[in-house]
Amino acid sequence: MAKLSMSDAVNSLGDYVRAQRQQAQMSLRQLAELADVSNPYLSQIERGLRKPSADVLQQIAKALRISAESLYVRAGILDTEDIGPRMVEDAIALDPRLTERQRSALLDIYRSFVGVADTTSDELTEKLTHAKEDV
């Protein structure tokens, strides 16, 4: 899949961050505090007015307990082929109907079917470095 255009990526990212925040039942202020970004800046990201850096995306992802890679795709930094399986893992991790035991079992089964290993931070850093060079 090709990368999204810059304006589509920023709008898609904002919509995605807002949806993930709402699913986590957090206010904008709570997420801003957990992600260590200002409330107005986070609001601008959600409205598609700002494109945050990879570092800010990582902070937001950590606060939302989702993979940073899914935000990198939404921001147009990475292609979906680079991290597609991580988005499935995020969906499993965020489903409020599942218990921790069920999440763990589903992740183990999914990874065994598709042969996905956890992406290490070194691998992610390498992918991001190459993505930034391409921009």
- Helical amount: over 70%
Largest β-sheet summary: none
List low-pLDDT spans: none
Residues in β-strands, percent = under 5%
Tell me the number of strands: 0
Order of helices and strands: HHHHHHHH
The helix-and-strand class reads mainly alpha
**Rg for CA atoms:** 15 Å
Span between N and C termini? 17 Å
Helix count from the secondary structure assignment: 8
Question: Shape, please?
Answer: globular
Query: Can you give the mean pLDDT?
Result: 78
Structure commentary:
Helix content is 71%, strand content 0%. The longest helix has 18 residues, at 6-23. It has 135 residues and is mostly helical. The radius of gyration is 15 Å and the shape is globular. Helix 2 crosses helix 3.
Helix and strand topology:
Layout: H1 6-23, H2 28-35, H3 39-46, H4 54-64, H5 68-74, H6 80-94, H7 100-114, H8 121-134
Summarize the structure.
This protein has helices at 6-23, 28-35, 39-46, 54-64, 68-74, 80-94, 100-114, 121-134.
Main attributes of the structure:
8 helices, globular, mainly alpha, 135 residues
